[in-house]
Design brief:
Layout lengths: L2 H55 L1
Amino acid sequence: MTMWDSIWPYIAAIIPTIVVAVLFYFLMKTILEGDRRERIAQSQFESEQKNSSEDEKR
């Protein structure tokens, strides 16, 4: 019996957990990055609207 025969069941049991954790990390990273970009775009839009409404009042 080799070392791999005794270790393999433990490795096989932990691999799905690691894969799910990595996928979750990249999913959350993408969601948070998208949210950050959306907030920046919303802020720029609101400042443009504010500037254009101030120009119309003059």
